[in-house]
Amino acid sequence: MLFGGGLPSPWTFLAHAAALTRRIRLATAITLLPLEDPVRLAEDVSDVDTLSGGRVEIGVGSGAGEQEYAVFGRDVAADVS
């Protein structure tokens, strides 16, 4: 059984949602920081936040288990330590 979201890049989706809306908050559930490039993530978040007029919220974490890392062919012990 796999857990987690279904969007490989939620920031592309949220940028589109920002263009179609004016008031809703734009947010992720939990972004697994060890699986992201920190500079690219910061750029994506800041771009969507700017385009949306400051409506972005981001949830971050390190993950709950091995399944979240296995999907990307990564070893949880190597990424979290």
From the alpha-carbon coordinates, what is the Rg to the nearest angstrom? Answer: 14 Å
| Proportion of residues in β-strands | 5-15%
Helix content: 40-55%
Q: What sequence of helices (H) and strands (E) makes up the elements?
A: HEEHEEHH
Largest sheet, described in full? Answer: 2 strands, parallel
Distance between the termini: 25 Å
Q: What is the structural class? A: mainly alpha
Please state the average pLDDT score.
84
Domain Luciferase-like: 6-77
Pfam families: Bac_luciferase
Organism: Frankia umida
Protein name: LLM class flavin-dependent oxidoreductase
Structure, described:
The protein is mostly helical. The chain has one domain. The protein contains four helices and four strands, in the order H-E-E-H-E-E-H-H. The mean pLDDT is 84. This is LLM class flavin-dependent oxidoreductase.
In short:
With 81 residues, this protein is mainly α.
List the helices and strands and how they pair.
Blueprint: H1 10-20, E1 26-27, E2 31-32, H2 38-51, E3 56-57, E4 60-61, H3 66-70, H4 76-80
Parallel strand pairs: 1-3, 2-4
Helix pairs in contact: 1-2
Pfam families: Bac_luciferase
InterPro entries: Bact_Lucif_Oxidored, Luciferase-like_dom, Luciferase-like_sf
Domain Luciferase-like: 6-77
Task: Provide tags for this entry.
81 residues; mainly alpha; two-stranded parallel sheet; 4 helices; 4 strands; 10% strand; elongated; Bact_Lucif_Oxidored; LLM class flavin-dependent oxidoreductase
